[in-house]
Amino acid sequence: MLPTFALSAATAVLLSSSRVNAEIELNLDDDTSIKNAAATIAYDMMTYYKGNQSGGIPGVLPGPPPNPSWGYYWWESGAMWGSLIDYWYYTGDSSYNDDAMAGIQWQTGANNDMMPANWSQSMGNDDQGFWGMTAMTAAETKFPDPPSDRPGWLALAQAVFNTQAVRIDNATCGGGLRWQVYPYLTGYNYKNSIANGCFFNIGARLARYTNNETYAQYAEETWNWVTSVGYMDKDYNIYDGAHIEENCTDINKVQFSYNSGVYLLGAATMYNHTNGSAIWKERVDGLLNATFKNFFPTGDIAYEIACEAKLSCTTDMFSFKAFLTRWLAGTTKMAPYTYDLIMPYLKASAVAAAKQCSGPSPFDGRTCGLSWSKGTDWDGTSGVGQQMAAMSAIFVNLVQHTLAPVTNSTGGTSVGNSAAGSGSTTSLDAVKPPSTGDRVGAGMVTTVVLVGMTGMFGWMSL
User: Fold this and answer.
1) CATH number of the 24-355+385-460 domain
2) Known InterPro entries for this protein (predicted)?
């Protein structure tokens, strides 16, 4: 069902669908306009989801590629639910809460650790991590709690953290998580920034939520490892990753906006948790400066530097600006002094994203593209990632009306379990060996890097 408050806006867009470059109407001085714009884009985004229809699989988008070729990897479904939880939190519209609740709970897996067996053939630590961050968002925003016979949001986040903590591999490269969970998966010999960034992010947020310093210690150690190995340099540029055979020295220097975002929110959360410590403020400031420089290169509009210029993005990459804008907004709550620094970028990006939602197909004059800096000149791309990114860029401009994420001591109600995930296993006997078909869909963006440095991103390896 289309949200009630959005009916008039969506109807107006539909009636004018024959216009060229119809775009999404947006007035940032009017909260109702912001909500209507976000609601229209959310509605269109959810038409891709079939898990609430007869024969569909709850919780997951169609895919992975090549079935269908335009399909999505499992991680992006988890990321989409996180964006819709934030959508509810910012706008108050609960239209998709039931879908989010059912979808996440359907994908928890036999051990309630966000590792369903059906996805074992493409299970990366980053894939699991995105679902864990979604669960953490649900706990922090007081998203409606699941039934008592189902794992709480906090317990799910703790399960993801616990299963990953035991996978830290000190025998190679001096620490850090590998990209993939299982040794037979392509990429098991690669350690990347996003897998470790998700773990860092969840650890920081669990530390703040529970006030348990064990989580904070892991977050600090992860930060130290990422910087010591050179994945994050002295200027706070964050690079993709490297191979264990080279002792993680063959760093691929492609940069993605979600890497900056995931570490920024984690660092801001640590700043908050440590009552404004100088070292975490220094890290927040450094990451902010690098983020503005790298991902807003031509002004205040977010830009995916790795692929946007030639629209050479993979399906995954079209979604990255969704996380960048959401985590920038989250940073303003964890480190309030950043609000005046960040908001001009979020405002300009929202206006630009709304204009780029001007494509004729499939949403009749309001299809969102990636190239926000092109204004109403739609770039010809469409999909869940583009819709999610535009929706997020718009609704975060309501951040000033939201409360800070809760904790156990400030009103949090989510049921936790500090031992969650302890029954999980990464034993090779737990899953069948992957077939050639399984390997084709082994998800997340770093596949591109591993296919060969001379491929799509080879020119970025400095």
Assistant:
1) 1.50.10.20
2) 6-hairpin_glycosidase_sf (IPR008928), Glyco_hydro_76 (IPR005198), Mannan-1_6-alpha_mannosidase (IPR014480)
